[in-house]
């Protein structure tokens, strides 16, 4: 978990209020340890964006074909992509601000220990489900065809006769149960030890699921969302101490961490550099949208996906550079948003496809 950061050590803060990069007060990282930590965080950030974007294409195609959703875990409406409209995008920064300030008040009024206990249980359940969903496609390929894969259904209803209403309706099979058991082992490990590896496993699962299942309906909506969160991030980082306070108090796998003292202390290291999931998922869903746009062009090229993916690497690298140069906290979306939006727009201008890019709308524009 993140510890208080001394004034002499810089840190960046993400759109969820998580401190992106920091170190504890009495530890001075070696150049090798710093490079390993920051490099590992960059690689870990790229993995869910890359694979989540690829899975979002498959997910979108499956939905457009009307097959009831992407079979990558429980076959339910919960696995179907959630489409973000322009109205959703415009409201999101306001909702995020209210949530952030609400958490700030909770930590000021109530005991931090009890709040984090409730959050741990909550994220344990979410983490197990997210990891199970992430693992399912790979596990389906691993099991032989002769594996006895039985189908199950978990159904809860309310009322009787014509007034009967479904509360829960989950369909799953034996392979899904195996994934759920394995995910639960990781969940118990995280719940009991709060080990940084378990934290990262859950964090990567959350990020990949977010990029895969949160679909922007068009590029304009993406620009509205990223623009709004750009202002949100800058305001709450530079204008108040709310985001930093929540970041230091909030104990949950909403960040990826990597120890800067790994070379000295091994897996028991405790001085972490951090990257918030908001700085992965928010640009990630825009990058995934551009990959789906590439696919819609049917030109066998991935120009916009590649340009936005490289833009993300550039923006994240710039965040780290500015942080160390000015020795001051930086909102990461301040650099990621202009890069991830600007690079593809410039490419579209050069190719004469800017109008086409902004007019393109995904086939699935309704909420599932």
UniProtKB/TrEMBL annotation:
Listed Pfam families: Peptidase_A22B
Membrane topology qualifier: Multi-pass membrane protein
GO molecular function: aspartic endopeptidase activity, intramembrane cleaving
TM regions (residue ranges): 35-54, 89-107, 113-131, 197-216, 223-247, 267-291, 303-326, 332-350
Subcellular location: Endoplasmic reticulum membrane; Membrane
Signal peptide boundaries: none
Gene Ontology CC terms: cytoplasmic side of endoplasmic reticulum membrane; lumenal side of endoplasmic reticulum membrane
Main location: endoplasmic reticulum
Claim: Hydrolase is one of the keywords in the record: yes
A GO biological-process term: membrane protein proteolysis
Keyword annotations: Endoplasmic reticulum, Hydrolase, Membrane, Transmembrane, Transmembrane helix
Domain of life where this protein originates: Eukaryota
Record-stated family: Belongs to the peptidase A22B family.
Record protein name field: Histocompatibility (minor) 13
């Amino acid at each position: 978990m993140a510890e208080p950061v001394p004034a002499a050590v810089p840190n960046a803060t993400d759109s969820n209020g998580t401190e992106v990069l920091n170190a504890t007060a009495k530890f001075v990282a070696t150049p090798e340890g710093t490079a390993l930590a920051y490099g590992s965080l960059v690689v870990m950030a790229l993995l869910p964006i890359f694979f989540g974007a690829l899975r979002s294409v498959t997910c979108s195609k499956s939905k457009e074909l009307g097959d009831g959703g992407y079979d990558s875990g429980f076959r339910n409406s919960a696995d179907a992509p959630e489409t973000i409209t322009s109205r959703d995008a415009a409201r999101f920064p306001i909702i995020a601000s209210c949530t952030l300030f609400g958490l700030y008040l909770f930590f000021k009024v109530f005991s931090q220990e009890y709040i984090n206990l409730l959050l741990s249980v909550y994220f344990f359940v979410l983490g197990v489900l997210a990891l199970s969903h992430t693992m399912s496609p790979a596990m389906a390929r691993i099991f032989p065809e002769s594996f006895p894969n039985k189908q199950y259904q978990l159904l809860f209803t309310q009322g009787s006769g014509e007034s009967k209403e479904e509360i829960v309706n989950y369909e799953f099979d034996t392979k899904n149960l195996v994934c759920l058991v394995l995910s639960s082992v990781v969940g118990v490990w995280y719940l009991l030890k709060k080990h940084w590896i378990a934290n990262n496993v859950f964090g990567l699962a959350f990020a990949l699921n977010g990029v895969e299942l949160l679909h922007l309906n068009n590029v304009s909506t993406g620009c509205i969302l990223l623009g709004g969160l750009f202002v949100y991030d800058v305001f709450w980082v530079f204008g108040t101490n709310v985001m930093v306070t929540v970041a230091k108090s909030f104990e949950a796998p909403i960040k990826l961490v990597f120890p800067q003292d790994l070379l000295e202390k091994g897996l028991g290291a405790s001085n972490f550099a951090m990257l918030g999931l908001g700085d992965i998922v928010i640009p990630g869903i825009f990058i995934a949208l551009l990959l789906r746009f590439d696919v819609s062009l049917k030109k066998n090229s991935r120009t916009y996906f590649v340009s936005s993916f490289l833009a993300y690497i550039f923006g994240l690298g710039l965040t780290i550079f500015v942080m160390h140069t000015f020795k001051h906290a930086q909102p990461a979306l301040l650099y990621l948003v202009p890069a991830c939006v600007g690079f593809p727009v410039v490419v579209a201008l050069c190719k004469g496809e800017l109008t086409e890019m902004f007019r393109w709308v995904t086939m699935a524009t309704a909420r599932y």
